[in-house]
Amino acid sequence: MSKTLGLDVGTKTIGVAVSDSLGWTAQGLTTLKVDTAQNDFGLNDLAKIIKDENITTIVVGLPKHMNNSVGESGERSIHFSELLKEKFPTIQVELWDERLSTMAAERTLLEADLSRRKRSKVIDKMAAVFILQGYLDRFN
Question: Which of 9, 68, 81, 133 is 20 to 30 A from residue 103's alpha carbon, by CA?
Answer without folding.
Answer: 81
